[in-house]
Each structure stands twice: as C-alpha cells, then as structure tokens.
Design brief:
Layout (H helix, E strand, L loop, with lengths): L6 H10 L9 E6 L10 E6 L2 E7 H18 L10 H14 L5 H13 L2 H5 L4 H8 L6 H6 L9 H14 L6
Antiparallel strand pairs: 1-2, 2-3
Helix pairs in contact: 2-3, 4-6, 6-8
Length: about 180
C-alpha cells in the first residue's frame, strides 16, 4: 500500500509521469499533522505555487459525517442502527468524492490505482484524481488532448481546469 511507502519515493514516481510542459509548474505535496489523532493531514496540488486542489482529511471526514447523517435522516434509519453502517458509509463516500471533496487517503488510493492502470483507462476513469493525473501525464499526447475537447465539457470543473492547463502549456487551441 502506498501510504506505507515513503512519500519521497511516491512523489518521485508521480513526478516522473508529469509532462515536460508542466514539470516545473505543477507540484504534489503531502503534509501530515503529527498531533492529529490519525497522523493524517492533507495532500495538495499547486500550480505556479498556488494551491489548486486541496485533499484534506479533516474536511473530507466532516463532509462524510454530514452526508452519512443526511442519508440516515432521509431513509429514516435510527442513528443507533449500525446494521447498514458500511453501506451508508460507502454511499456517503461516493457522494463526497463526486463532489470533489478528497481526503489524503483518497489521494493515495488514486495514486496507487493510477500507477497500475494503462493511460487510456486512466483518462476514462470515474475517479477525478486519476483523470487529473492522466491529463498531466507525459504519455497523454496532443492528439489525445485534441480529441477530448468535447467530452471534457461534461467533466467537473477541477478536471476541466487541469485539461485547460495542460492544453495551454502544450500550445493547443481550446476553441475553434
């Protein structure tokens, strides 16, 4: 599991996939908070030293707990009924991910899966983080990016941001 590997090794491997045009501009960072009960913190992506995607465990857990409570309320499940807890948690986690709220562990899970997938599958992944990694990947060529002009419009705003960033970095015209 990647979370047990040294971050420096994971980062080096992740950086090795970055396209040349973004190599110096885009950074992956992981920060752990030793005083946190689980010692997890956050992962974030910066572009030109500006944070563009924050994957904070505390923010994610807060949203997850709120969504779990909402699901129980909507389905009239007593708060003390633990029999459906894992199903409800899975549903809440999917919702949180779909909203683009990621924890540090979601980042590591996505990186791990990304390392195992061929680039074509990564570009079609339902996981926004994997798709983002694929969009900035050196194996994703200009022709592939060109072909995605229409389909990218159906993606979440953050995925579109990384697509636009990559296209501009490669000199690909976005309109016309």
């Amino acid at each position: 599991m990647l979370r047990n590997q040294q971050w420096s090794k994971v980062k080096k491997r992740l950086d090795s996939f970055k396209c040349d045009s973004l190599k110096e501009r885009l950074q992956f960072t992981v920060t752990n908070y030793r005083r946190a009960h689980d010692q997890l913190g956050r992962a974030f992506i910066t572009v030109d030293k500006k944070e563009v995607l924050n994957m904070c465990t505390i923010t994610s857990e807060t949203a997850l707990n709120r969504r779990t409570y909402e699901i129980k309320r909507e389905k009239h499940i007593p708060y003390t009924d633990w029999s459906q807890e894992s199903v409800i948690w899975d549903e809440a986690h999917e919702w949180v991910l779909d909203e683009g709220i990621f924890a540090q562990y979601d980042f590591f899970d996505a990186v791990e899966e990304y390392f195992l997938l061929p680039i074509e599958k990564s570009l079609k992944s339902n996981n926004m983080l994997i798709k983002i990694f694929a969009l900035i990947d050196r194996r994703t060529g200009k022709r592939t990016l060109e072909k995605m002009k229409q389909s990218i419009l159906c993606e979440k705003e953050i995925v579109q941001f990384f697509y636009t960033l990559r296209c501009k970095a490669e000199g690909i015209r976005l309109h016309g």
